[in-house]
Design brief:
It is built from four helices and no strands. Helix content is 66%, strand content 0%. The chain has one domain. The radius of gyration is 18 Å and the shape is flat. Helix 2 packs antiparallel against helix 3. With 85 residues, the chain is mostly helical.
Length: 85
């Protein structure tokens, strides 16, 4: 991509381009969770333990697709509103 921008090669539009740091962070965290799940499978961990990392990856991707969890709602409420004063 950089080479294409600098005029040193063709622009490859076949892959996704992530332009938001928040998206990069969420995708990086999802990838890390999936790598943990793969390692757990390789180490023959029980499926319920592997599922924890897979669920974590799903939640990170969910922040990009608009899926909102209860924890996110509570975090936003308590971070943006003054409660109890």
């Amino acid at each position: 991509m950089v080479a294409a921008i600098e005029g040193e090669g063709p622009l490859d539009l076949s892959g996704a381009v992530v332009t938001s740091l928040r998206h990069v962070d969420a995708l990086s965290k999802a990838l890390l969770s999936l790598e943990k799940a793969r390692q757990s499978l390789d180490d023959r961990y029980p499926p319920d333990l592997v599922a924890v990392d897979v669920q974590d990856a799903i939640e990170h991707v969910g922040t990009l697709t608009g899926v909102v969890t209860n924890e996110e709602i509570l975090d936003r409420v308590f971070s943006e509103f003054c409660i109890g004063k």
